[in-house]
C-alpha cells in the first residue's frame, strides 16, 4: 500500500492563482468537463482539459500517466517550476500528496498542474490505484 510516507510538511503556497489562467478549455468539443464531479474537494486545484485524441505535442506533459504508471516516476525540477501531469491512459487517476491534498479525478486526456516553490522531495500517489507512486524532486 502506501507504506510509510514522510510527513514533511508540504507547504506549497497557494496554487490557486493559476486557476484563473486555466479557465478556458479550448471550446468546441461539447464533451463534459470533469469539474464538479466527485466529492467536490477540488476547489482551487488545477485540473485542466486538453484536446481529446491526445496531447497536441509532448511539451505540456512533464509526467505522463499511462499503463497505471507515472512516467517519469521520479521527476526533478527547479524551485518555482510547475509540473504538468497528463493522463494519457484509459482509466481515471489522481495525483495525491496526502489523502486530502491532491488533484481530484484526472480523466483521460486531462491534466493537472502544480507549482513547487520550496526545495524538497515530494512523494505522491494515485488515490485510485495503490502502488501507483511517483516523486517530484525540487532542487
Ligand atoms: Cu491511478
Rg for CA atoms: 14 Å
On the 0 to 100 scale, the average pLDDT is 70
CATH architecture: Sandwich
The fold-level CATH name is Immunoglobulin-like
Label the structural class: mainly beta
Write the layout of secondary structure elements.
Layout: H1 16-21, E1 47-49, E2 63-66, E3 69-71, E4 74-77, E5 82-87, E6 96-98, E7 101-102, E8 110-115, E9 120-125, E10 133-138
Parallel strand pairs: 2-5, 4-10
Antiparallel strand pairs: 1-8, 2-3, 5-8, 6-7, 9-10
The structure holds copper (II) ion (CU).
Textual characterization of the structure:
The chain has one helix spanning 16-21; strands at 47-49, 63-66, 69-71, 74-77, 82-87, 96-98, 101-102, 110-115, 120-125, 133-138. The protein is mainly beta and 139 residues long. Strands 1-8-5-2-3 form a five-stranded mixed β-sheet, with no helix packed on it. Strands 4-10-9 form a three-stranded mixed β-sheet, with no helix packed on it. Strand 6 (96-98) and strand 7 (101-102) form a beta hairpin. The protein is globular. The structure holds copper (II) ion (CU). The site of copper (II) ion has 6 residues, from loops.
In a few lines, what is going on in this structure?
Helix content is 4%, strand content 31%. The chain is mainly beta. It has a 5-stranded mixed beta sheet, with no helix packed on it. Strands 4-10-9 form a 3-stranded mixed beta sheet, with no helix packed on it. A two-stranded antiparallel ribbon has the order 6-7.
What features would you highlight for this structure?
globular; 10 strands; disordered N terminus; mainly beta; binds copper (II) ion; Immunoglobulin-like; five-stranded mixed beta sheet; 139 residues
